[in-house]
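User: I need a structural model of Putative NAD(P)H nitroreductase from Dongia mobilis for a docking pre-check later this week. Nothing fancy, just the predicted structure tokens so I can convert them on my end. Input:
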Amino acid sequence: MTDTPIDLLLSRHSVAVRRLGGPGPDQQQTDQILCAALTAPDHAALRPWRVVVIGRDARSDLADLFIAAKRKRQAELTDAEAGRERDKALRPPLLVAMVARPQRLHATVTEAEQLACAGAAMQNMLLAAHFLGFGAIILSGARCEDTEIRSALGIAPDEHFLGFISVGSIVDAPLKGRRPALAEMATHLDRTMR
Ligand SMILES: Cc1cc2nc3c(=O)[nH]c(=O)nc-3n(C[C@H](O)[C@H](O)[C@H](O)COP(=O)(O)O)c2cc1C
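Assistant: Understood. Predicted structure tokens for Putative NAD(P)H nitroreductase:
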């Protein structure tokens, strides 16, 4: 039986980069994933975010930058650790850097609201990837604050580098994290408010 849209939405989960491989989204699917971001709710149409799609030719340099950034925090890297850093740059068929650029003193839309918009845009890309049958994950960490990586990707000091979105075919069955029970997340207000 075909999954309904709500089944699909409720079944989304992240897929670790080591479980991703080719083929990745083709050009049309890539455009669909990126366009999904543009359907995020956006108060006053500020579009307080942008993306950098990191193409194949840039990946080897990015891998070197990931390893160099890791070495700044940990002088001695094992081959396995360096390999994992390299993998994060080279393995995902589609790799997108998500950058939030909220207007700090907007008259009506707070910075928090604008960051929520950027988060919704990211989630829409994850969902679009999932709906198209791909696996995806967002990873941030210290590499998003690394000045060399930010500068190589053209990310300004006053922008928020939220994370790398990796998308590809699922080549190894992912571990699915536990979801909290609804009662842990929602409270109900069922009385008059005076
Ligand atoms: C902005 C952002 C950055 C994230 N960065 C990391 C990260 O650096 N490392 C990590 O293990 N998970 C990170 N996560 C969480 C994973 O992407 C993922 O959501 C988590 O492993 C839970 O899996 P799930 O999406 O299937 O619930 C990040 C999530 C967000 C929204």
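Before docking, keep this in mind: Residues 111-131 form the longest helix (21 residues).
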